[in-house]
Each structure stands twice: as C-alpha cells, then as structure tokens.
Amino acid sequence: MGALLLSCSLGWSAYSTLDEESRKKFNEILDSAFNAYVNEKYDQALQTFQKALSMDPQDTTALKGLSECKEKIEIRRAERLRLQKEKLELVRKSIKDQDWVNAIDQVYNILQNAPTHAEALSLKSELEQLLRKKMATFPVESSDRMIHEGVLYYLQKRYADAVHIWNEAKSLVSDQVKLSIYIQKAEHLLKEGTEYETLTLGRQRARAALESGNLEEAVNLWKKILEYTPDDEEAKKKFDQAQEMLQKKSRETMLGDYYDKGLTLFLEGNFVESLKYWEAILSISPENEVARDYVKKIRDKGVTANSPKEILPIPSSTVSPKSASGLTPTAAKPVSPVSSSPIESSLPVLSGDLDFYRQGLTFYQQGRYQDSIESFQKSLRRNPNDQKSAEQLDIVKKEQKTKADDHYQKGLIAYSKGDVAEAIKEWQVSLQIFPSHTASLRNLTKLKGETKP
Q: What are phi and psi of 328, to 5 degrees?
C-alpha cells in the first residue's frame, strides 16, 4: 500500500484531455477507489480504478492503483487456496481418526467461503456414506448407533435432532465429555441459525407484515426481535407502532360489535339491554354521536338500564392492550390497488379462462370486488400453488369487508338521525360491495319492513 500512498500523496497526474467538469468527476472516482483500497476492499477498488481509467487511460495514479489491487487480490487468492488445502488435509485426517464432527466442521468452513468447492463437496458426500455404513454395524437401540445418527443429523444441519438424540445417548455412555462437547457445538449452531432467522429474515417479514396491515404478526415478530436485541431502536419503534395500531383496530372491532348488538336490541324493542351497549360505547368513546343519539332516544322513552355500571363482556375479537403475545387478528388496513400490488394503469377486461389472475386485478381496479374474488379463486383452482393469486385474493377480501363495514356504519349514523331512506341507501351499497354482509342485510330487511305503508 506504501507505493500507492506515495503516488497519491504526490497529487493526481495532469489531465490533458479532461475538461473541468470531467476532471472533478474523475477526482471523485479516484478518491473512492483509494478509500476502497485503504479499507482492503480490493475487488471494489479494482473496479473503481478501471472506471477511472475509462475516463483517462494514461493516468499514472489509477494505473498504479490498478496494478497494486491485482497484486493484493492474487496474494489473497493464493492464501485462500493454501488454507483450503490445509483444511482438506485436516478433513481427511479427521475422517481417518473417525473424528466425525471435526471433519464436518472443516468441510463447512471451506464451503462457507467456496460453496461450489468440488473436493469439499465430494468429502461431504463421502462422510455421509461412511456414517451410514458405520451406523449399520451397530444395534438399533445402542448408544453407538445413536451417537453416529446424531453426527449424521449434524452433517445435514439438523442441529435440533442431533441435540435430541445425543442427549438420549448420554444416559447410556460412561464417558460423556466428548458427547457434551458435540451437544454444545450443535446447540451453538442451532442458536446462531435461529438468531439469523429472527434478526434478518424475521425483520424483513416484520416490516412487510406492518406495511400490509397484518398487525398481529408484526407485533409478534418485532417482539421476538427485541428478545434478542432489546436496544434495537427500529424494533422498539415498529413494535410500539404495530401494537398501537392493533389496539386501535381491536377497539374499533369492539365498538362495531356493540353497535350491532345495541341496534339489534333496539329494533327488537329490548330497550333496557340496548341501552347497556350504547352506554358501553360511550364509556369507550364519549363523543360517539350514534351512541349518544340512541341513549337519548331510549331515555326519552323513560327507560334506564337495570345495572348501569354493569361491565359488558369483551367480544372474542378484541384483546387486552397489555398483552402483545395473546393478540388476535383484526381487520387489515384497507389497501388501495395501486399500493397493494403493481397493477397496470389500464388492463383489458378478459373473459373466459384466458387469464384469471389478470382478470381479477382488472375487476379489483374497477371496484368489482366479488367478481375479482371469483377470478382469483378460479386461478387458484387451476393452480393451487399460485402465490400471487392467493396474496391478491386476501387483499381483495379484506378491502371488500372494510368498505362494506364503512357504508354499514354510515347507515347506522343516518338511522340514528332519523334518516331512514339514507340508512337504507348506505346498507344497499354495503351489500353491493359485499353481498353476504349480514349486519347490513339484517338491518335493511327490518327497515324496509318499517317503511312499508
């Protein structure tokens, strides 16, 4: 690195062919290449020096840097080959000594840096064959067979199975030291794998779950990440956000259940029981206009609740805000077609069975939820493993219910204000969106009966 550092300290060479703007860009590229070299990122430095030379092929600093990068890369390659050769020899010696676990560790050490290393892969296959032959020489329930079976699991990276069977074997052998070391190794690798799964893949799933409105999964995933890294700022922030959103959804679900029960009892003329639900809503949401209207209507009839302080049972669809682990699913946040999937701005309306998936997207974009659902279901019947259709079907169903619920609530508000015609209209819209929306269907049937002359 000294030669390169010296050439850089003397300043860049003359730029006889570069204008001022190109010279500025060239300097930035050369600085970037030098920084990569200093940080021993020689492959990156090599590519960046080559980029600089594409602008000025005669630049002495870039030429010198390129040469030194190639030299460093070659030194590393030779060192890597030397180490691999040593490890291969160690694997062969370990196999000869029947030190199976050490042989496996060395094989995976090589494959970690060179996944396609032919000789290492061949030795891995040889190890498996030797272990199976060895196992065949022992009685089925013997400790020796159990130990070798555990080693085979270890080779297959089935670390939990290896730990389990080695623990069983421990009670059958007198010298437990070596077996205890094997168990510790497997447990360590199992923990590493679980930690990677949680902190890397789990983080990706947690972000996706929060963005898609799958709040219970998001809460549980972020909570699990925090068990590994309690000071993770992103995890703490996202966990709080997901929990707050889930509690809000749970609260909305509870209010919706109380709406339904309060209105049903009111329409049935059971004003005492109905009053309990409207008052329960007001205890949760004191400014709720619909509940206040119904409480007034019922009290105007001279009715009061028998047990005004009675605490109504929490509906099964709600949860305690203090427990993140016991949360139950709630309605997902409405997702627009544009944000939920990359739908083209204009898709042709298809017919028949030409392309049910694209047909489903088209109907979804047009707000024809039921038709869209049927198209995605047809697509899944033809190909049950169609992940895209399954995901889109879930999105459409959730949005269909959300929009239908929205019009249902508007109908409740209209009815509480005495506007029966508007209530009927809103519930009809709700049923157009979601034909099996039972609450809208029930109330619409009753109100149509009320409006008959």
A: -110, 155
